[in-house]
Amino acid sequence: MGCCQKEKFIFTDISKEDKNNIDLILKKYDGRKGTLISILQEVQEKYNYLPIDILNYISLKTGVKPAKIHGVATFYTQFRLNPVGENMIMLCQGTACHVNGSKTIEESIFDELNIKDGETTDDGLFTLINVACLGCCSLSPVMMINDDTFGNLTAEKAKQIIRSIKEKSKRKGA
Amino acid sequence: MKIIVGQGSCGIAAGANKVYDKLSYEIKNNNLDIELSSTGCIGMCYLEPIIDVIHEGKKITFVNMDENKVSILLNNIYTDNISVNEFTIDKKDIEILSKQNRVALKNCGNINPESIDEYINTDGYKALEKVLKDMSPDEVIDEIKISGLKGRGGAGFPTWFKWNAAKNSPGNKKYVVCNADEGDPGAFMDRSILEGDPHRLIEGMIINGYAMGADEGIVYVRAEYPLAIKRLSNAINEAEKKGYLGENIFGENFKFSLRIKAGAGAFVCGEETALLESLQGERGMPRLKPPFPAQKGYWNKPTNINNVETLANVAYIILNGGKTFANLGTENSKGTKVFALTGKIKKGGLVEVPMGITLRDVIHEIGGGIKEDREFKAVQMGGPSGGCIPKHLLDTSVDYESISKIGAIMGSGGMVVMDETTCMVDMARFFLDFTRKESCGKCIQCRLGTKRMLEILTRICEGKGKIGDIELLEELGTKIKEGSLCGLGQTAPNPVLSTIRYFRDEYEAHIHDKKCPSKACKELVEYSISENKCIGCGLCKRNCPVEAISGEKKLVHIIDLDKCIKCGKCMEMCKFSAIKIG
Ligand SMILES: Cc1cc2nc3c(=O)[nH]c(=O)nc-3n(C[C@H](O)[C@H](O)[C@H](O)COP(=O)(O)O)c2cc1C
Ligand code: SF4
Ligand code: SF4
Ligand code: SF4
Ligand code: FES
């Protein structure tokens, strides 16, 4: 069986709604070359990660080889091929943060959530990702949770921030 | 009355949005006659959140604000003299600001980055008008040549030369690209300019376009800077509306358009040929030069790539003349440079100073010295491509030549300050870990060499270093430099080589004595309890995760070294400083 056939098979798996979503994104970049990264960024914005079936669908629609799409998706750290938790913790491990103790912050997150770099908590609430620099080095150590940046962290402060987010989502869930 | 809140990313991380919201709430609720506005980062990050109150032509700055202080402040404003307030900025901090010479950062922290009118009011787009109406492209390039401006993105290449090469390349379609990738961890000057004064960058890019004959520009911004992307795209929209971007700018026969491309997170994409690949939707792999981007760049058309800070100097040079700029700085390094001061420094933030100032002045005068009055050990300059500068070289002048003479580089201007608690071998390991992860993998020397170096450094930090390791590192370092295609591999060994050069004794202590003099390498330290300080409260015993501590109440406790996992929890908990590390 050739690989194209296999893709066709997978391609039938994606829902009509997904197709519509993707078609809309592709239409925006229609006919313009060199836009693969932008397309993937929009897909990830929509789905929070890059589902493999959807990558195959993009390949079919655009004629870009699956290997190339995969190559680009794995080259850049922004892209994720697996789903992530509801809250994304981006912990800075840049130079300034390293010097000011980001390792301790990582340990405190492990203490609180039992996850390491790249992992998601069992309840799906948090994912931890180490990043290179958030550009707030003067307030190091720094982490970003979703769109909020927190500076001058200590182990205790980091734990408290995470706990308060836990509380909030518990209340939402109840 | 007007109140301005500093809302750069750093200010926001320190709580500026909460302060802004509280102010806005109080003003509305009490019908106060106060105009509320927002600005970017002024550079004094250690004082954030910062707000400026402008009243009857006088400006008073209040620092370290929070929501509670807002009410007190507003009360004071309305009841007595606003200048007498416990939250006002210290005189010394104002002095620090006045010691700087702001060219690229002129407007940062002073104007509202979301208002094109405020930019125009500070002579914004006047340089563009002058260029389009009174100057030929060659005259523009000449002015840049006179200024002596060199690239601020790392390599320090003369800006006029690149512009000229792009201009002289044959072809009608040309591009201007701004490198706003700022991959160097510990540097954040580009972010501050994008967030605090986006129009300055836009103006610089349009002038660049005119000088080289390009009608299209792209800003490649790293994805980790969402606020910068937001403010820049807002600024582009406003500039289009006012006709600074588009067709027939200032009624002249010149058109220029600008767009943003968000990066996707890869340090190597800051390298110019890799950046171009990435712009074209490919993996960001560097290629051999020549051909240079000026000859074959974006879609193989002549392209000029400059750093954000480089372009932020352009409008000043055009308005004030290249000579004025060249009068600042040293013989070979003209103008000012923005530095990001971080690490174990008291007054961390952004500073812009004339080239030629000494490192000592930057760190001790402007930066206020070392946190907790500890000993200065080293300053790391140039990020992963740079080196560590030791104490005895603190009087080195900060300019391209002097810094590279002592084995570091100016780089993009990150200065990470370290004290005696930072281990230099660990720092070298940190940078190698970074470059190994970021290597694109094209060259064997870079891909495997950095991996080998990292293994050796890790071994040394863990107390498993062998005689000959230092020499092996030096040898590998030289080979990686020689055998790598792009700047990443060519500079990756620098942090290792410079720490070996200046801190060889620390390497030797790790290898020969199995000791970490800075007590930072976990595997090489031991925790113990001081007999005459311990009062036997038992707090450490209760908190040790592996039950390594024993002792009766009110008696001296002891640590079982075989059980101890060196987590440091006991030291953190003990209120009597009885836990020692050695
Ligand atoms: C691995 C690597 C990473 C780089 N990262 C950046 C960067 O993040 N920002 C930047 O402006 N220049 C970076 N550069 C330098 C650029 O390749 C290029 O020299 C610069 O953008 C040119 O602009 P300038 O002449 O204004 O400095 C990097 C170079 C290398 C080799
Ligand atoms: S030196 Fe390293 S990063 Fe540069 S092209 Fe070679 S492998 Fe890639
Ligand atoms: S916490 Fe300090 S004082 Fe208390 S038992 Fe432990 S070492 Fe002794
Ligand atoms: S360092 Fe950690 S494991 Fe060791 S004695 Fe202290 S608390 Fe226990
Ligand atoms: S090093 Fe952590 S924010 Fe820059």
Automatic annotation (TrEMBL), chain A:
Keywords: 2Fe-2S, Iron, Iron-sulfur, Metal-binding, Oxidoreductase. Its EC number is 1.6.5.11. [2Fe-2S] cluster binds at residues 92, 97, 133, 137. Its cofactor is [2Fe-2S] cluster. Transmembrane segments: none annotated. GO terms for molecular function: 2 iron, 2 sulfur cluster binding; metal ion binding; oxidoreductase activity. The keyword Iron-sulfur applies. It is an enzyme of class 1 (oxidoreductase). Pfam families: 2Fe-2S_thioredx. It comes from the Bacteria. InterPro entries: NADP_DH_HndA-like, NuoE-like, NuoE_dom, NuoE_N, Thioredoxin-like_sf. Binds 1 [2Fe-2S] cluster. NCBIfam families: PRK07539.1-2. Belongs to the complex I 24 kDa subunit family. This is NADH-quinone oxidoreductase subunit NuoE.
Automatic annotation (TrEMBL), chain B:
InterPro entries: 4Fe4S_Fe-S-bd (IPR017896), 4Fe4S_Fe_S_CS (IPR017900), Nuo51_FMN-bd (IPR011538), Nuo51_FMN-bd_sf (IPR037225), Nuop51_4Fe4S-bd (IPR019575), Nuop51_4Fe4S-bd_sf (IPR037207), Thioredoxin-like_sf (IPR036249). Residues 525-554, 555-582 form the 4Fe-4S ferredoxin-type domain. GO terms for molecular function: 4 iron, 4 sulfur cluster binding; metal ion binding. SUPFAM superfamilies: 4Fe-4S ferredoxins, Nqo1 FMN-binding domain-like, Nqo1 middle domain-like, Nqo1C-terminal domain-like, Thioredoxin-like. The keyword Metal-binding applies. Keywords: 4Fe-4S, Iron, Iron-sulfur, Metal-binding. Belongs to the complex I 51 kDa subunit family. This is 4Fe-4S dicluster domain-containing protein.
